[in-house]
Every structure is written in C-alpha cells, then in structure tokens.
Fold this protein.
Amino acid sequence: MNFDEFIERETEQSKVDQSQLREKRLQEWLGRVAELYGMVKDIMSDYAQSGKVSITTDDELDLYEELLGHYKVPQMKITLGSLGKYITLNPVGAYVIGAWGRVDMSGPNGATVRLVLVDSHLESPRIRVTVGVVDDSVPKRSDSFPAQAQAEPDLVWRLATIPPKIEYIPITRATFLEAVMNLFGYE
Amino acid sequence: MAELPEKYPPLESIVNHHKGIVEAVKEYFSMLKKQEGLRWPEWMDVGDTPLELDEKCNSLLAEEGVRTCFALVGYIEDTFKAHFLYVINLDNQNSLFHIFSTIYSRKKTIKNVSFRGDILDSWLTEMKMDQSFYDDLKKAFEFRNWFAHGRFFTLNTDPAGNASYEYNTLRLLAEDARKLCSDAEIYLT
C-alpha cells in the first residue's frame, strides 16, 4: 500500500465511522422519542380505553439537523373527546442547547410546553463553565452539564418550565395531565 | 477635509461601542452554542435548537442596531448644534456667521434656538444644503421621535415607512453631517 492508497482508505474509513455514529445517534434519539410516547400512552391509558381520548402516532414529521441530516420522526396526536380538540407532541431535535433532545407539546391555542431529555440528577439547566476563574474556591467547571461530546448520562424526560427560572419537573400522571389542562387554558 | 475641533461629539465612540457590542454578542452566542459560559442565561429556554439560538442572536443584534441608530441621530443633532455655537463665537464674521448670528439674536438664548426649525432649515435655505440630504436628515429625526416617544405604543411600527433607522445608513448620514460642518469651517478660517 502506498501513501495515496493509505490516505484514501483512511478517508473512506472516516466517512464510514461518521455515518455509523450519525446512525447510532439517530436511532438513540428515535428510541428516546418512542420511550416518551410510551410514557404518555401509559398515563393516558385509562382515558384511551374508555374512549375519552384517542392517541395516534401515524403522522410523521420531516426534520433536519445539521449533525443528523434529514430524517422522519412520528408525531403523537392526542384527541380529547368527540369534539376533535387535540394536542400534539412534536419532536424538535436531538441536538439542542442544554439538553439531549426536545419534544414540544402544543395545544389548540398555540400554547406550547417543552419536554426535554436531561440528566436525571439535574433540577434546572446547567452550562459548562470553561472561562478561567481566579478564585480557587469557585468550581471552574460544572461536571453535570450534559455536553453532547461527553459520555451520555442517565437521561430522563422532564417538563421544563419557562425562563427566567427554569425547573425540570418529573413527568408523572399528575404533572402531565396538569400540563395538558394548561394547554387548554385551565390553570 | 478639515478636522472638527475636539469639542465636537466623537462619532468613533458610538461606532466603536456598537462594533464592540456586536462582537461581544456574537461571541456570547457562539459560546452558548457550544454550551459554554459562566451561567445559564436567565432569558434562555432550555432545548433551543441552533437555528432558534441564531434567531435570538439576530433579534438581539437588530435591537442593538436600532439603539445605536438612536445614538447616531443624537450625534447628528449634537454636531450641527456644536457647529452653530462654534460659528457664532468666532471673530471671523463671514456669511455663515451672519446667518447664525441673526438666528441667535432673534432667539436671544441658545436654548431657544430650534435645531430643526432654525439650524437645519437655515442650512437648506441659506447654505443650499442638498435637498436629498436634508430629506434624509428629516427621516432620521422622524425615526428618533418614533423611538423616543414609544415605538410599541403606536400602531405604526415602521418609522415613517423608511429605512433611515438602519445602522449603516445612519452611520453614513452622521459621517456626512460631520463632513458638512467640517467643510463649512474651511470657509471660516
């Protein structure tokens, strides 16, 4: 093998590696979305069985992310009662700021709640501190920020409140149903 | 081109401030995109996409541009007023001195001299200021009124339907205003 062949082989291998990484990340992300939809179906199962709500994931969204390219992802639609009012769960992307993924839950009046995939240990967003700090008593770096390049922590879906004080609220039957009611204008 | 005396307002400080803010904002958003910084910004949602972050950055830069435009229009008024004061205090009694001194005598005090009604209009009628430049200045001051008197209150969110509030346009207008006053001084000295 000469140097030209060596370069060509390494370049090809690099492309394969990148493609495999992209596919792995995409499948992880789609798996996380499916996991969220499973949670929602569990929470709503009583209402679905009694016919008070219907849940579908037949429609697909076309998404584009710089690092994942174009891909399709199912949209969840939860229709309440027979009046046809519904909410949708719309995956937004895996590469987002401060989280490992985001799904927007949108109501009939345009209101939206963000569902974010975050480190289970976090109660609010963290950012990686890389600017030098003179005071040694101040931590120079938060080790809890889920930077995409770092090893994936224990991730969970959370409801995120709006700024200025963002909090991550665990998704339980009570919190999720409350969020749904809020989207319909009920406090 | 003759340089204006140091007492004239410094355009560079406004321009450099604007450039500094723009660079800082871009750097700040670049860090946020890399998920770095000193703390989580209070205003920022968690889970923004890079595109959404770009839109927020552009929105912030646009607002900075409008605010700088406001400062630039203030600079233009300062320049003409400073020039007016400079001329009426000169010993050199040329035609410009007589024009401005007549206004000053009529108004008694400098506070009573109107920028638009006295100074700017005398530039147009007595000193043959280019009509299009005069019109551009008027639009710039319409923009300032829109900004200063509650731009969110009025239904007319676009200042007089013109683009005079765009940063580069107003910076050039400010430079031209300075050059106009500066060139006028050549005839005084």
Summary: Chain A is about 30% helix and 30% strand. Residues 94 and 132 of chain A are 29 Å apart (CA to CA).
